[in-house]
Amino acid sequence: MAVEWAPPAYAGFSGREGFDTPTVVALLVAAPVKAACLWLILRAPARGPLDRREKALRGLLYLAVADNLVLWYPIALLPDAVDTAFQLALWAAIDVLFLLVIRWRSGMLRAAAGAMFAVELVVMTDELLDDLDLPELGAAGNVAPILILGGVAGILITVIGQWRDGRWSRGTLTAGWLSVGVYALVLPLDILLDTIPGDGLAVSVLMEAVTLVSTVWIAATAREMPKEDRLADLPPARQRAIRVAVAAVAVLPVIAQIHPEQAAHLTHTGWSMGCYDRPSFGDLKPEERDAAFLCLARSRDGGVPPIFPDSLSDQGVLSYARALCRAKDRDEQTAILTRAGSARPAWGADPWDLVYVCPEIIGATHPELLRSTAEKKAASDAYLAERNASCRDPWPRTKGVVQATATYFLFADGDAGYLVHDPGDPAAGEAAERATDKVYDDSAGIGVARSAVLIGHVEDVIDLCLTVKALRTAPPRRTAGWDQVNEVPIVSRSGRLTVPEMGDGEVGAGAPMPNLAIAGKGRYRLRVYVRVGDAGEEHLVVVFPGASRKRVELKRWTAR
């Protein structure tokens, strides 16, 4: 597997077209390099006593070598999260054992190595969280450069520790120094590969051969561990120089990741995982609220421009948002959004968005926005119970086989009324549409379309009291106390007739509605009583079996 003449499957190259001259030269150079590296890797380990930590480190290092040469292929067939978890567990154990086994001869050097190992493991943990679609630690946007910088610094400090320990040969240390160089050249070589015309296969072949140096260093580190050679104490001046170099290696990669405050830190965007749902304020922990607002502020849901531009940093977005909370009116909000570079400054910002940033300000005027999902549901249930309790059965002495009384909410713009329909009819949607079309042409405001009847409201109201009853026979034709009474035919094809209930939206009956088709499939008569009084608009719908297809007007509405 180390000597490979046929390259792996690169994009757009199958191996059948033949190689160009640079690729042939690269293969001829790579073959002996890989063969030499493989010979160095497979050398037998040195003999000598090892304690438990050293034995464990040797075994894990050889496992890392096997992963680089062989195990990567079967692991690549598994989900990405499995590979990332394996790498994280393997190198976490190796790094800990490096700290315990290598005789660092300097507490500062050991601390620097621990810091670099920690950076590398944090980035790998972030990769694992990303693969599992879990909330990340924050480094996901810069995984490649951080991982490379951490890898360079980690190998460099480890090789320095091996040099000061004295148990490893000059060849092993040389392989370690070369590994540092290979890691440092990963990004430049990737950029070079992108700029080379053609498929860049020659550079890829050489990169694969060169990266085996790291595997040689890992194998040599495991092989030479029993040696007992020690270095003499270094002069104080050289010790100080080493400390300065180690401190620079440890600190500079961290400094490189610190951006100026005005740089855009897009840790949350409108396309980030978890940004597709609007969480209730009361369901979030305090540390999660800023992230929720950043999702909303950069959302492009429905093709609407975001509140703030993508070029504005997280810190800038939150700063402008807090200024919006303190704005006195819409004009001041418009001015703030204009300064922020918003694509929609005239729209201002809504309190249900700003509540995540300044709950103490928004909550003073809109306390309902501070509720959790459970609190919202409890408040909604209490409101519905109160509204339903305000409606009374207009025929309390005439008991139906099934019946219900509730408030029917008509919040939808242009809502013509409410349906009594057969939801199990295969043509239920078409019947509802035809009933809606007919209601506007009917003098009584009732649209009939076989299995659907749409009953309109007679006044401009947002809700009405609705009572439905199912009787076995037709009730007396009494109209006293009602402003309008009409009777129409309706058909149940599935054995069901009911009124839509309020779901997640704002339209529908506020309480469960019964099945009014008490005789099963067949034809029914539907009588509608309507009146308007101090209690608002009231409707009584009575359904009973009947084969007649006639429409009967028992009492006509007279406008007041």
TrEMBL record:
Keyword Transmembrane helix among UniProt keywords: yes
Keyword Membrane belongs to the record: yes
Keyword terms of this UniProt record: Membrane, Transmembrane, Transmembrane helix
Ranges that cross the membrane: 24-44, 56-78, 84-102, 109-125, 137-160, 172-189, 201-220, 241-259
Name of the molecule in the record: Uncharacterized protein
Species of origin: Nonomuraea ferruginea
